[in-house]
Amino acid sequence: MATAAKKIKLSSSSSSDENKTSITDFMNEIQKKREDTAESILNFDFNKKRVRIISQEQLVPDYCEGIVYWMSRDSRVQDNWAFLFAQKLALKNEVPLHVCFCLIAKYLDASVRQFHFLIKGLEKVAAECKKLNISFHLLEGSGADALPQWIIDHNIGAVVCDFNPLRTPMGWLEGAKKKFKKDVPLIQVDAHNVVPCWVASDKQEYSARTIRSKINSKLDEYLTEFPPVIKHPYTSKFEPEPIDWDKAIETREADKTVGPVEWASPGYDEAMKTLKSFLDKRLKIFASKRNDPTQDALSNLSPWYHFGQISVQRVALCVQKYKKQYTESVNAYLEEAIVRRELADNFCFYCEHYDSIKGASNWAQKTLDDHRKDKRTHIYTLEQLANAETHDDLWNSAQLQMVKEGKMHGFLRMYWCKKILEWTPSPEDALKYAIYLNDHYSIDGRDPNGYVGCMWSICGIHDQGWAERAVFGKVRYMNYDGCKRKFDVNAFVARYGGKKHKYVAKK
């Protein structure tokens, strides 16, 4: 049987000339939509609610010789509100536009797999910037360390940055704000969410039910076409430092044994091929088959979403066109891509403890604590879990899928995570192990979606209390027999080769 990696690769892009032509046409059609929307960002009514001024200073100083877009979460040129806003400032002030990406040596539990996807994607961004007369700079270190002096050296008049609700990037932003010159405005734009996180809600939402209408009621205002990023008319007086892209990957402090995957290649063009194949082949079965891991029914866009190499808003605009044809599938996909994804950003933005038991609701903390000392039928180490050495062949197959492909089917990710709660000594260990494994192997790890997925499974976030049982307490339970009722478990196990390992209790 073909592996899912090959299957997904075949469904994401094909090498036939006809397919290449259709991809080119598809991308050209989207570019034409941008150009029809506005000649440039200067002729477009930019929604100022997408913007937050982080600094006290709001005006660009007279000495300004350039504007910087500090790119981080959204590594793309087109369909990027932050990039567009930076170009707007540069055009208004008649100065060059620079893009800086600040590359740190180590990021949480990321492996070379994720750094490869990020850096190879940036290489393509740099090439596109060059065509548009925009300088791209790869700086070593965090934005708080690498940018302040660079801004002074080059008389930069304003910095536009991405929005990211996670504490490490928020820390970079806070650190940069303290070190930047006081007369240089620092402006944040949420280019990742359709409805900016701070606009969607001003508090932590309880569930999808409580945020859904808040987001959906604002889509008419925010789910709009994009104008184009244009060839910049003002040229920088200095050249960017040459970039050795392969060396940039090699010099990261990351696990080299977890390498790139075959089925997903980085960059906007590859994301567009995957989007096109989803629209053509998989969207029609998304509503009915998305929870079946043996079916190829998902968009498969999560790696490109995570690194911001494609805009969720662009995908939503494309999917929306099929509403009459595939109503249920379109509604289901927009619910997941917009409402559920933006709920995850909401949780991480407003909850300080988004990756800790402390972030759970009171009922969940209590029930997990009440059942803390319940006897576990199996207890596994992190190493055993990483190596897929449990007694459960379905769990092992899901883990192997993530190790091999950098992606686990969404339905199985819930089962996988809940079993970690069942098979580890404490809820704290379970959450720590689940987050580590997801962050280390999954291309889209270290993401609000991932943290919320683990918190939903283990801590009942965005869920309710269920019938009480051992270990789980009132947290929702999932089991092997339930999976058998949903899909062909044997077919999934055969595809990934997860074996049942004999359990030997540690003394």
Automatic annotation (TrEMBL):
The keyword DNA-binding applies. One of its GO terms (molecular function) is deoxyribodipyrimidine photo-lyase activity. The keyword Cytoplasm does not apply. Its cofactor is FAD. Gene3D superfamilies: 1.25.40.80, DNA Cyclobutane Dipyrimidine Photolyase, subunit A, domain 3, HUPs. It comes from the Eukaryota. Residues 1-20 are annotated as: Disordered. InterPro entries: Crypto/Photolyase_FAD-like_sf, Crypto/Photolyase_N_sf, DNA_photolyase_2, DNA_photolyase_2_CS, DNA_photolyase_N, Photolyase_Class-2, Rossmann-like_a/b/a_fold. It catalyses: cyclobutadipyrimidine (in DNA) = 2 pyrimidine residues (in DNA). Keywords: DNA damage, DNA repair, DNA-binding, FAD, Flavoprotein, Lyase. Residues 65-197 form the Photolyase/cryptochrome alpha/beta domain. GO terms for biological process: photoreactive repair; UV protection. Belongs to the DNA photolyase class-2 family. Involved in repair of UV radiation-induced DNA damage. Catalyzes the light-dependent monomerization (300-600 nm) of cyclobutyl pyrimidine dimers (in cis-syn configuration), which are formed between adjacent bases on the same DNA strand upon exposure to ultraviolet radiation. This is Deoxyribodipyrimidine photo-lyase. It comes from Parnassius mnemosyne.
